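Technical note accompanying the year-one report. For the benefit of new consortium partners, we illustrate the data format agreed upon in the data management plan: each record pairs a sequence with a structure-token string. No post-processing was applied to the example shown here.
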Amino acid sequence: MTKTCNCTHHNVLYSHFRNKTDTLEKLVIIPTYNERENITAIVKAVMDLDQDFHVLIIDDGSPDGTAGIVQQMQTQYPDTLFLEQRKGKLGLGTAYIFGFRWALARGYRYIFEMDADFSHNPLDLPRLYEACLSGKGDVAVGSRYVKGGHIENWPWDRLFLSRGASIYTRMVTWMPVNDSTAGFVCYKREVLATINFDEINFVGYAFQIEMKFAAWKLGFKIVEVPITFKDRRFGTSKMNRNIVKEGILGVMKIQWQSLFKNYRLRVKNTAETIHSFSAARSA
């Protein structure tokens, strides 16, 4: 699996962030590939919450000009909208891990995953935040499969696949999460600082499962917050056969490794690394 990438970094001086430590509370990471039809509206929807959410767009060289649109919007949101451009389509998992490291290095306390296509409603961001802030959980998952959760506008085969994957994952791993494949998540920084990202192996469908599994195995509490998930109105879904295959085989691999290969020790960062992330927060 590819774990590294060549990236063109948006030039932001670290000292700029250090002077704004008090405002570095919440960061929403949105990976993009060909999302020009959605990107303006999704960024505006997050900013219009007026609750100090910052947004990091990680664009994988979208040929439709998504990154260019974000660059134009940065003049409107100069201190709260950030862009990182990667060369090539490198996978959802590597995009989020890149974003996690970016967020930790700058001291953010709550880091969110969210899709660009409005399948995740930005109005639910404060609910995920509150679930972590109140101490109900260390990881808050926007869940389709708990009481109050719903899915709209999905064909029956997609619904069957998603629901079946979550049931299958729970049966194989025993992880107490109903929506293990969910991609609408809030992490406390302590969770991400503890996980050794070099040991997160999957880049597609199984990535979301593996991150939740690692957090659970390391003793963090996962809470599920009911949401309504809506299928995208614009653009094309990134789901494909290889992603599904990775999910099915990946769950078995994750559980096998956890049983026989000192999983907790391997997936946990060293004390020095955890301390360095803590130092970044207090700097």
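Partners are asked to follow this layout when depositing records. The two ends are 34 Å apart (CA to CA).
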